[in-house]
Specification:
alpha/beta
Length: 488
């Protein structure tokens, strides 16, 4: 842990400053961040989908004013501005703007919250930090590994509070489960397993077309290199296209990936897995989307612990929705949905519990509390937490994207001698085959390679490393490009 943070400060930040709780602050930036003002002024950026929750969440808090709404779609923006003026008395003077840079230039704004498409998330964090504004950023905090590293460097350099929109970090129930697991109550954990299995529909095909007159298309795509507008991008299905989204794994799955990562032993906290692989496909729909709707992925950490992950989206009769985390232990015991299930007489142990502490008030109030205290470590889900758990999903997605097509059968899962991984893969395979009706003789899996990752340098090594390292960083449009960690 100390070595990891020393590496970050020496090789990435290169800036002199105060160190508080392991995060770097310059004296100038720390003094300039908001103090104990009672009135906290925030701008909500991206107001169509998740942004409505940001408006409702922050709008209900005492002494919080929503001063700006930001969205490149003027039609939606005007609707939300009128809604805020009518329903939130503390924010009746709210202004609507299409470009976040207008907000960042306003010295009276204390923070922004970001509920934009994924390709904007890290740049919002970086710009907020440079403008000395705190930032609540929706999951995932990064669209690729490189920009996540830069966002972390910016948060450290300027000393801002960044809170990741992974609400389970604000849950007493999940904090207790993680506390029990990491304290050894159930023995040594072997596998931390996340599930993002929720029904969705295919999206069909939409041809390139002219953006609607209310939409500033150049601002919407911003950092992303997207050649043409089509209606499947705006306003939700962008999730299923690689240039702007990260698929279900780092959409809904970001919440469960974050819990899976949170529960690992402290010795691998703030580290990356040493190897990853993924297998899956986009079955049945035959649509325009690029990301998998069925996936099994696994990552191995340096201490031998694994993270498994399931994605399953296709509707079928008897479909079982699973959006949760489960845990497997060395003696055969399991913790499923909060209930310990013993094996061969195994029992929960009577051990001292090292409590994982969270800032009270839920995800919205805890962010405001951390900002008013000028304490990045009070955030429930810091930029550290965000970078490492999001990278876990990015690594799995990179394996999938480098995969080769193989026949749709049980032999597609190659996990060495990891019997539990094979068993979990077969569960999802059987559901796809029997429940979803994926034809054995016609369909194909995409099987990603095992990729080895140097977590200190944050690049791939060994086989496939040349191809994999190209996917560490997305191309960016001029004017919206991501700076280097050193120059942030």
């Amino acid at each position: 842990m100390t070595q990891r943070r020393d590496f970050i400060k020496k090789s990435i930040l290169g800036t002199a400053g105060i160190t508080i709780g392991g995060m770097g602050f310059s004296a100038k930036s720390y003094a300039s961040i908001m103090g104990a003002n009672d009135r906290f002024r925030i701008a909500v950026c991206g107001v169509n989908g998740r942004g409505k929750s940001h408006i409702n969440g922050f709008g209900k808090l005492d002494n919080v004013e929503i001063a700006y709404l930001v969205d490149p779609d003027k039609k939606i923006l005007d609707e939300r501005v009128n809604l805020v003026k009518d329903e939130i008395a503390s924010s009746s003077a709210v202004k609507g703007v299409t470009d976040v840079r207008t907000v960042l230039d306003d010295k009276n704004i204390d923070a922004i919250s970001c509920a934009t498409p994924n390709h904007w998330h890290s740049l919002m964090v970086i710009w907020a930090a440079q403008a000395q504004k705190h930032c609540y950023v929706e999951k995932p905090a990064s669209h690729d590994i490189y920009e996540g590293r830069v966002a972390l460097a910016a948060a450290e350099k300027y000393g801002i509070v960044v809170q990741h929109g992974t609400q389970r970090r604000s849950s007493d129930d999940w904090a207790k489960q993680v506390s029990d697991i990491r304290s050894g109550k159930y023995g040594k954990m072997l596998v931390s397993h996340g599930f993002a299995c929720k029904p969705r529909e295919g999206i069909g095909f939409e041809p390139p077309s002219t953006p609607p007159p209310s939409l500033d298309w150049n601002l919407w795509k911003g950092p992303a290199v997207v050649n043409n507008f089509h209606k499947n991008l705006v306003h939700y299905n962008w999730h299923w296209f690689w240039p702007v989204g990260n698929g279900e794994l780092n959409n809904q799955g970001t919440h469960q990936l974050d819990v899976a990562y949170w529960a690992l032993d402290s010795e691998v906290e703030n580290t990356h897995p040493v190897r990853v692989m993924a297998i899956g496909g986009r079955f049945k729909w035959g649509d325009q989307g690029e990301t998998p709707n069925t996936m099994f992925a696994l990552a191995e950490f340096s201490n031998g612990q694994y993270v498994f992950f399931n994605v399953r989206n296709v509707n079928h009769e008897g479909y079982q929705r699973e959006v949760t985390n489960r845990f497997y232990f060395e003696d055969g015991g399991k913790l499923w949905d909060g209930e310990y299930i013993s094996s061969n007489g195994s029992q929960a142990r009577n051990v001292p519990i090292k409590e994982v502490k969270i800032t009270p008030g839920g995800n919205w109030q805890s962010f405001i509390t951390a900002c008013k205290a000028n304490d990045p470590y009070m955030a429930n889900g810091t930029m550290y937490d965000a970078h490492y758990s999001c990278t876990l999903g990015h690594l799995m997605n990179i394996s999938y994207r480098l995969g080769e097509k193989v026949p749709f059968n049980a032999r597609a899962g190659r996990f060495g001698d990891n019997e539990l991984a094979f068993q979990e893969f077969m569960k999802i395979h059987d559901i796809a085959s029997d429940g979803m009706g994926v034809p054995q003789d016609q369909a194909e899996y995409i099987v990603g390679p095992w990729l080895r990752f140097d977590g200190e340098a944050e690049h791939f090594v060994g086989d496939y490393s040349t191809e994999a390292n190209r996917l560490l960083r997305d191309p960016r449009n001029a004017g919206f490009d991501i700076p280097s960690p050193e120059s942030v």
